[in-house]
Design brief:
With 475 residues, the protein is α/β, with parallel strands linked by helices. It folds into 2 domains: 196 residues, Lyase, Ornithine Decarboxylase, Chain A, domain 1, CATH 2.40.37.10; 238 residues, Alanine racemase (TIM Barrel), CATH 3.20.20.10. Helices cover 28% and strands 25% of the residues. The chain starts with 32 loop residues before the first strand and ends in a 13-residue tail after the last helix. It binds pyridoxal-5'-phosphate. Pyridoxal-5'-phosphate binds next to α10. Its cofactor is pyridoxal 5'-phosphate.
């Protein structure tokens, strides 16, 4: 990995805050507060206690935050669908953050679960997800993964290539699935709409690995319908991630409904799955659309398009990941070193090194993702200083928070908290530099418990097959 690509020394959007201690409501869990001494509490637990019991770095996940968000997202889509007399099912896209505890929370809140590998499937099952309410995705599911999925009775399998049609059909046929028990499948299509963050782009052509071109989908549907071990339940698309606004979804829905209307000529088609990708706030300048407005906008667009083509509305499905868990997560680090670096003639920034980095949050290095940060162990009256929070890894691109104003007296021993780390941080974590992955602690109602234990040096050594096993002394 190379150094950070060229960008302005200070991002245009970053404004010096009046108060560099403020917890900006949109990016922190709802339960985040500061106590009388200024220390951060999440889920009713203070950061000093969290550090003492679990060490740093530490992923903290606000259970009530995840549950409340799951309920709210589900209610939003169900209500939007009910207004048109149809049903909506919300799958939790588990790749955002997956552990058995989280599976339990979201399934208790009525969500189905989406997985993309045999590993994710195993965790979803271990967490008690009902097989019939699991969806399996992926562009290269192995035969073993598909066999396992069919064996446990996974609800839907999303077909991603022609080769996979035959593969799934064969596996389902070998299990005697036919008629009512035929394996339900969806066809993944590219609608040509790509939404990245605040904008979307609609193209006629696709050059990426997922799904089928819209123009190829009818032949795919015909083939699936010829196979007695498969049941074509619907079509699926997912236009991207961290999307703001409804226009990208509406454009994609219009194209998908065209296909849906077309495919209905060859038989029933029960479901349109519109994927996930609903954006969250990572910094104070992000203003994501309220999920209720998104749900209404998307469902209304589908209804409009169906009316225009005079086809009945299908059931709808959605797959939010980030928007369920993102804001419920906070990563706690301890500051190890602080040094001012002259970035240019007139820009000096504090490099604040913490005890984690790209191994626990790969998103800044991977996508140039922006985050914010606060000193968590105290408040400070020191003037805000332009800062960059960096990790401990051997890469100059090992950045946790690219640009933020922290109190200028930030010092070794301070606890630093980075909010909005609930999605795609734990799940993308690595052991780079043989740094053990941090534990995940769930906080709720003043209690904290480990839901995924941290790795130890023994864990790191355990996979190395080259270590001589101690043999008894023989003389
Ligand atoms: C990643 C993914 C999602 C979830 O995306 P979020 O941005 O986390 O909501 C949903 N569906 C599919 C197919 C995905 O690959």
């Amino acid at each position: 990995m190379s150094a950070v690509p060229d960008r302005p020394l200070v991002p245009e959007w970053l404004v010096a805050p009046r108060d560099a201690n403020e917890l900006v409501a949109s990016v922190w869990p709802e339960s985040a507060t500061r106590d009388a001494e200024g220390a951060l509490h999440i889920g009713g637990i203070g950061v000093a206690e969290l550090r003492e019991r679990f060490g740093t770095p530490l992923y903290v996940l606000d259970e009530d935050g995840v549950r409340a968000r799951a309920r709210r997202v589900r209610a939003a889509f169900e209500a939007a669908a009910a207004r048109h007399g149809i049903q909506a099912r919300v799958y939790y896209a588990s790749k955002a953050f997956l552990s058995t505890a989280v599976v339990r929370w979201v399934t208790e809140e009525g969500l189905a679960v989406d997985v993309a590998t045999g590993g994710e499937l195993a965790v979803a099952l271990a967490g008690g997800a009902e097989p019939a309410r699991i969806g399996l995705h992926g562009n290269n599911k192995s035969r073993a993964e598909l066999e396992r999925a069919v064996e446990i009775g996974v609800g839907t399998i999303v077909i991603d290539s022609v080769i996979e049609i035959e593969r799934v059909a064969e596996i389902a046929a070998a299990r005697g699935l036919v008629g009512d028990t035929a394996q339900k499948v969806l066809i993944r299509v590219n609608t040509g709409v790509h939404a990245e963050t605040h904008d979307f782009l609609a193209t006629a052509h696709e050059d990426q690995k997922f799904g089928f071109a819209l123009t190829d989908a009818p032949a795919v549907a015909r083939r699936i319908r010829e196979l007695p071990s498969l049941h074509l339940a619907g079509v699926h698309c997912h236009i991207g991630s961290q999307i703001f606004g409804t226009s990208g979804f509406a454009e994609s829905a219009a194209r998908l409904v065209d296909l849906y209307a077309d495919l209905r000529a060859g038989g029933e088609l029960a479901v349109l799955n519109l994927g996930g990708g609903f954006g969250i706030a990572y910094t104070s300048v992000d203003t994501p659309t309220a999920i209720e407005d998104l749900a209404d906008g998307i469902v209304d667009a589908v209804a409009r398009e169906c009316a225009a083509r005079d086809v009945p509305l299908p059931s709808l499905a959605f797959e939010p990941g980030r928007s369920i868990v993102g804001r419920a997560g906070v990563t706690l680090y301890e500051v190890g070193t602080v040094k001012p670096v002259r970035a240019s003639e007139d820009v000096t920034r504090l490099y604040v090194s913490v005890d984690g980095g790209m191994s626990d949050n790969a998103r800044p290095a991977l996508y140039g993702a922006q985050y914010s940060a606060r000193i968590a162990s105290r408040t400070s009256a020191a003037a805000p200083a332009l800062s960059r929070v960096v990790g401990r890894h051997c890469e100059s691109g090992d950045i946790v928070v690219d640009a933020e104003y922290l109190p200028g007296d930030v010092a070794p021993g301070d606890l630093l908290a980075v909010p909005a780390t609930g999605a795609y941080c734990f799940s993308l974590a690595s052991n780079y530099n043989y740094v053990p992955r941090p534990p995940v602690v769930a906080v709720a109602g003043g209690t904290a418990r480990v839901i995924v234990r941290g790795e130890t040096i023994d864990d790191l050594l355990a996979r190395d097959a080259g270590i001589p096993t101690p043999t008894e002394d023989t003389e």
